[in-house]
UniProtKB/TrEMBL annotation:
The lineage of its organism: Eukaryota, Metazoa, Ecdysozoa, Arthropoda, Hexapoda. The gene is 6053718. Keywords: Disulfide bond, Lectin, Signal. PROSITE patterns: C_TYPE_LECTIN_1, C_TYPE_LECTIN_2. It holds the Pfam family Lectin_C. Residues 1-35 form the signal peptide. Residues 49-169 form the C-type lectin domain. This is Salivary C-type lectin. GO terms for molecular function: carbohydrate binding. It comes from Culex quinquefasciatus (Southern house mosquito). It comes from the Eukaryota.
Length: 172
């Protein structure tokens, strides 16, 4: 023990005494938001669906934002479309909010009669394809008139004023 202590003491004496520097690492909240999508990004992209995870809005705010990019709120007309939509959700940058994404379905015109507001065609028109979650649409509280899609691709009618991320598509 004694020998050890002495050796230790010698080592300390021989070492240059560096000043103790305490580095305080400030937690810098680096904005993890994605760069906002621009019309030029849209024009360059071959994608059909654009998942907007850097902002939220009501159904109509989502509608207008998509239009401002030369896009429209997303519609889904087949199982293939829905597959592409869920793939786009999975590939999108992470987001801070929970919940589903607005797509273009609504029954604001006539209760229970859902149309794509962008094309004025009924959900399932021609293809018969819809992908409602079990028990939906249920018009809960008599106040659900806009369609959201869950990450796994099923649809729900929801209060149009609830803030949501949303999905735009290239019109064709
Ligand atoms: Ca409704
Ligand atoms: Ca519902």
């Amino acid at each position: 023990m004694r020998i050890c202590t002495q050796q230790s003491s010698v080592t300390l004496k021989m070492s240059p005494r560096a000043p103790l520097v305490v580095l305080i690492l400030a937690t810098v909240a680096i904005a993890s938001t994605q760069a906002a999508l621009t019309t030029s990004d849209v024009l360059k992209s071959n994608a059909r669906y654009f998942v907007i995870n850097d902002r939220t809005g009501t159904f109509w705010q989502a509608f207008r934002y998509c239009n401002s990019l030369g896009l429209q709120l997303a519609s889904v007309n087949s199982a293939n479309d829905n597959k592409a939509l869920t793939a786009a959700i999975a590939a999108a940058p992470p987001r801070k909010t929970k919940g589903a994404w607005w797509i273009a379905g609504t029954d604001l015109g006539k209760e229970g009669d859902f149309v794509w507001v962008t094309t004025q065609s009924r959900l399932g028109y021609r293809t018969g394809y819809t992908n409602w979650a079990a028990g939906e649409p249920n018009n809960e509280f008599g106040n659900e008139h806009c369609v959201e899609v869950y990450s796994y691709g099923e649809w729900n009618d929801k209060n149009c004023d609830v803030p949501r991320n949303y999905i735009c598509e290239k019109p064709w």
